[in-house]
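To the wet lab folks,

You asked to see what we're planning to order before we commit. Fair enough. Below is the target structure as tokens, and below that is the sequence we designed to fit it. If anything looks off to you, flag it before the synthesis order goes out.
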């Protein structure tokens, strides 16, 4: 079933029509949540600093985390001191904690750990994003803006800016889960969205050239080098003609493999894993020093395992090389972002109030 759904979500075929009644139940639940916020039964928590949410409207990965890292780098270059919050999907607990570069991904989630290592910004994870944000501000009072990796549908956290990221799927067949890929009705519209506690989506970003008119583009490309666990780099051009494997435990592994091939690399073997796959040492057995190209998200989990195998004195593990995905939002994206943040600076929000009850 799970293997058929992504394909079924692209059109209104037999599978989608079969699941359509369940999508109406999902719609009713979503409408009820919005009504609860409108009536004040669920509260929105405002923080003393602006909050920027980068999220998905469609289920599955669409490139949020690379955009979050690009956004953090831009804010730092503009003199802001950003912090990042996340739920930490796939981690072993729901505890609220700071993501330090030396943590195990099982404790904090692979994507928050990647952000912490790549950006130098403080990162906190918690089941409730309001809790993560308050803990971050308490530990790092210098932080003057918060970026939320995901959370577009987490209405209990007030925000100054919503950014929705789409990939080549767009909105698919336009139906809600589970008959389609949408997590919420799209586009957001109506009085509740414009004036009530459910904030509108301010910026729509597409990570594909086939974007609708008016959308902002965010181009994706692989870095021109691969990085080993010790930080040393090797140009991808030097890997051409070598026997290589490629692994990916992400939402769309074939995209990663395709980009490697476009870079001129010959992949003798590829292996796909579920998104956020919890790798174990057994996954690395039998590779005998072979070169394996992996995504950065996979590297934060695989490289420590390879080091453990080497330290244990067992058979030689694979030579793991991480190839990062770099995103380049168009200039208009950052201009729109900066304009909205300047407006917030001119008219900052009042002091925050109580916890959300969502």
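Sequence we intend to order:
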């Amino acid at each position: 079933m799970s293997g058929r759904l992504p394909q079924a979500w692209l059109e209104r075929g037999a599978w989608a029509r079969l699941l359509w009644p369940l999508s109406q139940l999902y719609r009713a639940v979503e409408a009820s949540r919005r009504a609860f916020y409108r009536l004040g039964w669920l509260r929105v928590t405002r923080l003393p600093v602006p909050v920027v949410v980068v999220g998905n409207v469609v289920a599955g990965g669409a490139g949020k985390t690379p955009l979050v890292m690009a956004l953090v780098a831009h804010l730092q270059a503009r003199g802001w001191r950003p912090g990042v919050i996340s739920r930490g999907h796939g981690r072993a607990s729901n505890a609220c904690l700071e993501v330090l570069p030396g943590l195990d991904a099982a404790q904090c989630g692979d994507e928050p750990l990647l952000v912490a290592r790549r950006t130098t910004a403080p990162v906190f994870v918690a089941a409730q994003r309001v809790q993560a944000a308050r803990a971050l501000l308490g530990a790092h009072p210098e932080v003057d803006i918060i970026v939320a990796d995901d959370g577009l549908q987490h209405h209990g956290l007030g925000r100054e800016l919503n950014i929705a990221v789409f990939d080549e799927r767009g909105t698919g067949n336009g139906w809600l889960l589970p008959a389609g890929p949408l997590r919420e009705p799209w586009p957001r519209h109506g009085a509740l969205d414009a004036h009530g506690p459910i904030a509108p989506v301010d910026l729509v970003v597409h990570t594909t050239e086939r974007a609708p008119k008016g959308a902002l583009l965010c181009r994706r490309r692989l870095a021109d080098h691969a990085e080993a666990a010790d930080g040393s780099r090797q140009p991808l051009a030097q890997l051409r003609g070598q026997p290589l494997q490629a692994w990916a435990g992400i939402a769309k592994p074939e995209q990663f493999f395709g980009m490697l091939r476009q870079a001129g690399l010959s992949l003798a073997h590829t292996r796909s894993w579920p998104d956020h796959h919890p790798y174990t040492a057994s996954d690395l057995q039998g590779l005998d020093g072979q070169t394996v190209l992996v995504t950065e998200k996979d590297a934060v989990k695989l490289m420590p395992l390879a080091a453990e195998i080497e330290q244990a004195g067992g058979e030689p593990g694979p030579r793991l090389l991480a190839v990062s995905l770099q995103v380049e939002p168009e200039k208009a994206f950052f201009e729109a972002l900066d304009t909205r943040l300047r407006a917030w600076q001119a008219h900052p929000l009042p002091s925050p109030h109580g916890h959300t009850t969502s």
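Structural context that might help your review: Residues 14-39 form the longest helix (26 residues). Residues 190-196, 351-358 have pLDDT under 50 and may be disordered.

Thanks,
Computational group
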